[in-house]
């Protein structure tokens, strides 16, 4: 829990610093790159979470991976996390940054759970519907869950619309039981 609070603090600090320099969009793109790169690389995760490796080696590995992909502000964040012995929360900081950035820009995150991955055409339709419902821009996070059989579950903030086949089957089951 304290790691989560620390991640929020670092994310707010880097956002504030990026806003002062009008580079918040660039840093947001960097944070997305950091999250996807670390989550897609098991080796990088092992390096970051290893208690045996010295922080200097971890820092060198991260700079090697990210030096050509991200801005100086993001490299500065990595340096700061190494200096404060908080490198383990780098992914959390990057995720929190994008959440705070989206809130700042008024962008909603719509979580769409489907049985199969969304196609580009469906993705566009969902974005248009979310904008119509909320009046805000949105990004789509597609969660694939074959257990819903078909249909979809749309969650925007605290509102959830369940149009899945499994939900309809549950409703029918309850009706038959009554």
Automatic annotation (TrEMBL):
Keywords: ATP synthesis, Cell membrane, CF(1), Hydrogen ion transport, Ion transport, Membrane, Transport
Compartment(s) of residence: Cell membrane; Membrane
UniProt entry tagged with the keyword Membrane: yes
Origin superkingdom: Bacteria
InterPro entries: ATP_synth_OSCP/delta_N_sf, ATPase_OSCP/dsu
GO MF annotation terms: proton-transporting ATP synthase activity, rotational mechanism
Membrane topology classification: Peripheral membrane protein
Gene3D superfamilies: N-terminal domain of the delta subunit of the F1F0-ATP synthase
Keyword Repressor: no
Cellular component GO terms, alphabetical: plasma membrane; proton-transporting ATP synthase complex
Family membership: Belongs to the ATPase delta chain family.
Function (record text): This protein is part of the stalk that links CF(0) to CF(1). It either transmits conformational changes from CF(0) to CF(1) or is implicated in proton conduction. F(1)F(0) ATP synthase produces ATP from ADP in the presence of a proton or sodium gradient. F-type ATPases consist of two structural domains, F(1) containing the extramembraneous catalytic core and F(0) containing the membrane proton channel, linked together by a central stalk and a peripheral stalk. During catalysis, ATP synthesis in the catalytic domain of F(1) is coupled via a rotary mechanism of the central stalk subunits to proton translocation.
Listed name of the protein: ATP synthase subunit delta
Highest classification ranks of the organism: Bacteria, Pseudomonadati, Bacteroidota, Flavobacteriia, Flavobacteriales
